[in-house]
Each structure stands twice: as structure tokens, then as C-alpha cells.
From TrEMBL:
It is an enzyme of class 2 (transferase). GO terms for molecular function: chondroitin 6-sulfotransferase activity; N-acetylglucosamine 6-O-sulfotransferase activity. The keyword Lyase does not apply. Its EC number is 2.8.2.-. It is a single-pass type II membrane protein. It comes from Astyanax mexicanus (Blind cave fish). Belongs to the sulfotransferase 1 family. Gal/GlcNAc/GalNAc subfamily. This is Sulfotransferase. It comes from the Eukaryota. One of its GO terms (cellular component) is Golgi membrane. It is found in: Golgi apparatus membrane. Pfam families: Sulfotransfer_1 (PF00685). GO terms for biological process: carbohydrate metabolic process; N-acetylglucosamine metabolic process; sulfur compound metabolic process.
């Protein structure tokens, strides 16, 4: 009799334990389904308070160098600090497939700019499969060195001690690397795309030579997609020696998603690194479940898109609550505005950067947005595009379910950036 009672108790205990384990998964599944179909994006910014505290600590002497008007050359900011105009440092803050390579090319073409194309790529490859969040400190430290024209940090992730110009900063299309005095193929003063096959014939140069060239330029610009949020840049913004300005590029999330799906195989590794971040690990584990094995590459890319919208929303909230002097060192630009009104946006971009604009640069940006077709067969290649087709291609390439999904979890971002839903009545 006692044995039977013991068995019953054991069965009840086991059943109760199983029930406790199942409830969170059921709730998570229901919440995830509802979120994908109907939910409006919530303002989920778990690190906002910590980062805001970091911003509020940027004051006094530190504010003097970073502050000042981003659209002019005023000698003093609102806080009375003296602006450092001897060297300008600009970070192009973007994410994958937003048109950031095109934005970066506008700086690559400027004769006063030393341009660094995605220098943190080698780090991410070397430290794979390290999660994106844990790499943010290393990304920031590397950026700090690069802005100071110290390229020795590149050797840490190159896998070789002898690193040359034929390895870094998108060298085959980099105007500095492919121009005199490093190479006779081009002149930095001439505006026009660099042909990779021409630059490939340039002799490799030691990084020390590239560092010397870097120090000659008034402006150093880094374009990358591996800073997860603006808050990561706080220690650099507070550094008066850097005079850092941030240009953040946004794009219609549906167009981003369409472009990411087109290049999904090339983006799988970095999508995994984003999803493996501690605060996103639950989503990553769901993708590893046996039922999610089909179309796994597409699932990785789609899930990372949700995190991109969360990051954008966090950035907008952070900047909206930042001090005025800091906001003046921050500029927001939409890809759609850049390609539909290229000359106006180019002038605004250069004015913020304290860079002169020329008729040749205006002609260049106009030609780059008046090409034929949506994109080339190589999606990461910079080329002339049809602006309107690039903007609206998602309407024909995404199905209704994909559009509804993006509009659901990017709803608040779309509202704040002025993107209309395909069905205005949808909530």
C-alpha cells in the first residue's frame, strides 16, 4: 500500500515538474506568435538607463572637445567648451544592407578624407563565433586606435605579422591606398569610382606608410556595421582629442529585410554572432531547435532583423534624451532621402562634417543614383543604381507574410522614421 502511494506521489511530482517546465515555453511560443502577427514594437531598451547615466557623465572638461555645432565651425559650444577643429573624426553608424557602402563612398571620394571601410570585419572573423555584445568593447578600442592613425591593432586579427595595404579598409576601392603617393593608379583629387582590377596591380605598402598618409588628412572617417548601439561610442564622444561626430543611417526595414534575404548566405555568420549575444540567446536557441532546421539561413537573417529594429529604437530614444551639445555632434539620415534628393543630402552631410562640397562631388552623387536596375549581381559591390527601384524593390520581392512580419516588429521604428505601412489600417 505504501509503495503504491509512493509511486503516485512520484508520478504527481514528475508531472508537476514537467508542467512547470512546459509553461514558460508555451507562454513564450504564444507571445512570439502574437508578436509576429499583431504586436506593435515595444520600446525595449534594457540598457538605456545605464547608457543615459554614461551620457550624463560627459560634462565639464570632456564636453568641450566633443561639443560645438555640428553644422558649422563655432569656437565654443553651449557649455562654453572650446571646440577642437584641428582634426575631424566621423563614424558612420549603420547596420548591414542599409546602403552604408554608398554613404561611405561619398566620403571615400572627398579629397580631404582618409576613409576606412569596415576595419572591424577582420576582428569579427578572427573571433568567430564570439557573440556581438561581448565584442563591443574590443570594437570601440580598435576604433579609438584607428582614429588616431595607429594601425598596429590590425596585426592582432590578421593572422600574420606582416600586414600590408593589400589587406585593409576595402583596399581595392580605397582612394587613398590606390592613389599617389602610395600608388600611381589614381589621384585622390579626382572624383570617380576606383576600379578593383586596376587597384589590384598597386604594390602592397607597409602599414607605417599608410599611417603617415592618414596623419596628413584633416578628416578620418570610419564606416562599419559592427557597433550595436550608439551608447557603445560614449567613451569616444567624451574624448576631447577625437572631436567625434556620428552619422547614423536608417532605411525602410522592409527594404533592409529584402536586401538581407538576397544576401542571406553572406550574412549568416554575422547574424549568428548578433543572435548569440547574451540578451538574445533565447532566440538563438529557438533557431537551433530541430523544427527550425529548414531554411535556417533565412531564419537567422530574419531574426536578426528584429534585433536591428530594437537597436534602432534604442538609439533614437538615447539621442532624444541626450544633452543638446551631444545631439549637435549626431546626424540622422535616411537612405531614401539620400538617393531621392542626393545633392541636397550631400550638402547637408558635408556641412555637418565641416567639409567643402564641389560641383564634381555633386555630379558624382547624382550619377550614382541615376543608374539602371536595382543592383548588380554582386550585392556588396558599389555601383550606379536606379534610386526608385532600389527603394521600392521590396514591394515585389517580399510576400505578404514577410511584409506583415517586418511591419509588426518594426512598427514603432517605422512610425518614428516616417515609413508608412503598406496597409495603413493595420495596427
Amino acid at each position: 500500500m505504501k509503495r503504491r502511494l509512493q509511486k503516485k506521489y512520484i508520478i504527481l511530482i514528475v508531472a508537476y515538474s514537467v508542467l512547470l517546465l512546459l509553461v514558460p515555453y508555451v507562454l513564450d511560443y504564444r507571445g512570439h506568435s502574437a508578436h509576429a502577427k499583431h504586436a506593435v514594437q515595444q520600446q525595449r531598451c534594457p540598457d538605456l538607463e545605464n547608457t543615459m547615466a554614461l551620457w550624463s557623465g560627459i560634462g565639464g572638461g570632456a564636453a568641450g572637445g566633443a561639443g560645438g555645432g555640428g553644422n558649422g565651425t563655432e569656437a565654443a559650444g553651449e557649455d562654453g567648451g572650446i571646440r577642437n577643429d584641428t582634426k575631424i573624426h566621423i563614424y558612420l553608424h549603420a547596420t548591414w544592407r542599409t546602403g552604408s557602402s554608398f554613404l561611405g563612398e561619398l566620403f571615400n571620394q572627398h579629397p580631404d578624407v582618409f576613409y576606412l571601410y569596415e576595419p572591424m570585419w577582420n576582428m569579427w572573423q578572427a573571433l568567430y563565433p564570439g557573440d556581438a555584445a561581448s565584442l563591443q568593447g574590443a570594437v570601440r578600442d580598435m576604433m579609438s586606435s584607428l582614429f588616431r592613425c595607429d594601425f598596429s591593432v590590425l596585426r592582432l586579427y590578421a593572422g600574420a605579422a606582416n600586414v600590408s595595404t593589400a589587406f585593409v579598409f576595402g583596399w581595392k576601392t580605397n582612394k587613398v591606398i590606390c592613389s599617389e603617393p602610395l600608388c600611381a593608379a589614381y589621384s585622390k583629387r579626382d572624383v570617380g569610382l576606383v576600379q578593383g582590377d586596376v587597384c589590384a596591380r598597386c604594390p602592397p605598402r607597409d602599414l607605417a606608410e599608410l599611417e603617415r598618409e592618414c596623419r596628413k588628412y584633416r578628416a578620418v572617417v570610419i564606416k562599419d556595421v559592427r557597433v550595436l548601439d550608439v551608447g557603445v561610442l560614449a567613451p569616444l564622444v567624451r574624448d576631447p582629442a577625437l572631436n567625434l561626430r556620428v552619422v547614423q543611417l536608417f532605411r525602410d526595414p522592409r527594404a533592409v529585410h529584402n536586401s538581407r534575404l538576397k544576401s542571406k548566405l553572406a550574412l549568416v555568420r554575422e547574424s549568428i554572432q548578433v543572435l548569440r549575444s547574451k540578451k538574445h540567446a533565447d532566440r538563438y536557441r529557438r533557431l537551433l531547435a530541430p523544427g527550425a532546421r529548414a531554411n535556417r539561413a533565412e531564419n537567422y537573417v530574419a531574426s536578426a532583423m528584429e534585433l536591428i529594429c530594437d537597436g534602432w529604437l534604442g538609439d533614437m530614444l538615447l539621442v532624444a534624451n541626450a544633452p543638446p551639445w551631444l545631439r549637435r555632434n549626431y546626424m540622422q539620415i535616411r537612405y531614401e532621402d539620400l538617393v531621392l534628393r542626393p545633392v541636397d543630402e550631400l550638402r547637408r552631410l558635408y556641412r555637418f562634417s565641416d567639409l567643402p562640397v564641389s560641383p564634381e562631388l555633386e555630379k558624382f552623387v547624382l550619377n550614382m543614383t541615376r543608374g539602371r536596375g536595382y543592383s548588380s549581381d554582386k550585392p556588396f559591390l558599389i555601383s550606379s543604381r536606379d534610386a526608385k527601384e532600389a527603394i521600392y524593390a521590396w514591394r515585389e520581392r517580399l510576400n505578404v507574410e514577410q511584409v506583415n512580419q517586418v511591419e509588426a516588429y518594426c512598427s514603432e521604428v517605422m512610425r518614428q522614421l516616417g515609413y508608412q505601412k503598406r496597409n495603413p489600417d493595420q495596427t
